[in-house]
Amino acid sequence: MSIRADGPGRRALLTGSASLAAAFLAGCSSTEPIDGTYKAGLAPSAGPPPGTPKAAYERLMEGNGRWVTNALRHPDRDPTRRQLLATSQQPYGAVLSCIDSRVPPELVFDTGLGDLFVMRSGGAAVGPVITGSIEYGPMTSGTPLIVVLGHQRCGAVSAVYEALREGKQLPGNLQAITEALRPAYEQSVRESHADPAEAMAKAQVKLTADALRGNRDLAPLVGKGALAVVSAYYSLDTGVVEVLNGAPA
Ligand SMILES: [Zn+2]
Fold this sequence. Notes:
Elements (H helix, E strand, L loop, with lengths): L7 H4 L4 H10 L27 H16 L10 H6 L8 E6 L6 H4 L7 E6 L6 H14 L3 E7 L3 H12 L7 H18 L4 H19 L4 H5 L4 E7 L6 E5 L4
Parallel strand pairs: 1-2, 1-3, 3-4
Antiparallel strand pairs: 4-5
Helix pairs in contact: 2-6, 7-8, 8-9
This protein binds zinc ion.
Family: Belongs to the beta-class carbonic anhydrase family.
Function: Catalyzes the reversible hydration of carbon dioxide to form bicarbonate.
Protein name: Carbonic anhydrase
C-alpha cells in the first residue's frame, strides 16, 4: 500500500513567514511529503494522510469510535512505518491536550506513528511556546486540523478553580497555569454552572480554539478552508470525544 503526499497544494503553503519558520525548523524535523512505498508490516495501514480539514477530522473521529467500542486497529505502528518516516513526516493533525495520564491523544484517536503533532500541558493551558508548537504544522507543512482537547475531571482545572475561588496562589511554576486558565475560570463563574470546574474545562478549550482560529498566522489558513480548529471534550467514563465547536462542515 502506498502513502503519497497530497502534492503541491500543501507544499504551496510554504510561503511568506511560513517559509521562514520552515527554514528555521528544518534542522529538527523534515516536513517533506512522504513518497515512500509502505509495505505491509505488523500493523494495518490507515492509508495516505488526509489532506483536508474534514477528512482529517473524520479520520480522528473514526479512530475515537474504535477506542470507544474496543475495535482498535493500532494502525501504522510497526518498524516498517518507522523506517518509512525516518527522514520525513506529514502529520495530518495537531492535538493540544492535558498532561493527564488518562488522555493520550494517540490512544484515544487510535492513530499511528507520524500521524499527529502532540502538545500537552496542565489543563491544556497555552502560552507562547505551546502556541508556536501548535502553529508549526499548519504554518510549515499544511497540517489541516488542530484539536484542542479538554477532559472530564481535570485535576489541573479543578486545582486552578479552587485556587482562584479562594484567592490563593498555587506553588512555584504552577501559578503560571493558574494565570493561563484565568479567562476560562472567569467565564465559568459568569455563566454560573451547576458543575463549575467541568464548565471551566470546556470553556478553556473553546476559548483556546477560538483564539487559535482567529490569530494572525492561522486565521488566513482557516479563511481559505485549509485549516480547521476544533475544541473537544473527552469523557473519562466512556472514552467519547465530544466536539464542542469548530467541526469542519
Ligand atoms: Zn487534565
